[in-house]
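HOLO CASE FILE
Compound: fe (iii) ion
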Amino acid sequence: MLIGPFAQILPMSGLPLKGALQDEQLPVIPDAGVLIADGKIREIGDYKTLAHQFPDEEKLFIDEPMVLLPGFIDCHTHICYGGTRNRDYAMRIAGKSYLEIARAGGGIWDSVTKTRIADTVTLTEGVVARAERHLREGVTTIEVKSGYGLDMANEIKMLQAIRQAGQHTAATLVPTCLAAHMKPRDYEGTEEAYLNWILQELQPVLKAEQLTNRVDIFIEETAFSVPAAATFLKQAMQQGFAATVHADQFSAGGATVAVEAGALSADHLEASTDKEIALLAKSDTVAVVLPGASLGLGMHYAPARKLLNAGACVAIASDWNPGSAPMGDLLIQAAVMSAAEKLSTAEVLSALTFRAAPALQLQHAGQLATGFIADMQAYPTNDYRDILYYQGKMKPAMVWKKGETIR
Ligand code: NIG
Ligand code: FE
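Model generated. Tokens follow.
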């Protein structure tokens, strides 16, 4: 099928994976079309040329000005959960800190309690509803973490709910086990013992049931220490799991562990200093910044500008979760952060597409190029700069997943 003409196609291909980008580097194809076969991009280029080359091809004619982009990849979410944390949020905006609320019995543990009493069907429905909202807003691939179960039955329940949700949405869901979100309050041993339980008891089940091949750990004062996390990551990776890390959110330390372990990504980074920035820039670990958490916690953004200048691969994700990042609007968050952090449009759109792909080990996603998956979104404008100009309020008018029309 030939789709077009589009006022502009931004293929997001041929750009460097790491470092600063200027808008002048962004390839923009005017009056463009895209040829789709078997859910993949077959050709991309000038619409009239393609129409001549493939006269017999079925056509989807676009009769209004539209700008076509790859679908966004949200490489960090916690959209599987029970209940709400609106009470936490009200306390926080009234002046209580995230850590104070956590210590007072709110925070992550509150969501654990509410998720443990939710059944699989309810959890599945929640994931599907949030994934469908994301998909309509152009987010075609979504990582989803467990981490509100924190025991065998409930971590498995969450990962099963995520898997079932994947059968009821066209969005691609990538599950990650975050049993190392915090040491559960009802666990009596040390943090090392809890992490060993994950390695020795939980992970073999994840493997056997093929629930996920990814693990995450929250490295922080209120969660897991640097040395315990380093040992955990090494052993998890030896068991064949790919790793991602909640790093440097309130204090530095986690990003260094992530880089040294060879994690796919280090996420948050609000507290990263020049030392962590330099380490990330030299590594293959994707630096994932989460403006939704900064907005939800009323704290400063991660140093995305510095990370890009140093040469890091920077992705932007929503961190959509019931606590620190309830909004879940990836484009609004990226647009708002870019104004504060001084990111170019090229950097922001890269961070939402092909630069997020390696964090999820996706080979053919995040670009519109021959052989890539036809996950695409079209915005109702003739100038791509409008997308960030309207700060995320302009939503895609059309979305395709594997070449199929979603909206
Ligand atoms: O990424 N930082 C730790 N975990 C989540 C918060 C989850 C929650 O508050 O429930 C985060 O911000
Ligand atoms: Fe998170």
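CASE NOTES: The pocket of N-(iminomethyl)-L-glutamic acid (ligand 1) is lined by residues 78, 107-108, 111, 218, 246, 249, 293, 319, 321-325 (CB under 6 Å). The mean pLDDT is 97.
CLOSED: yes
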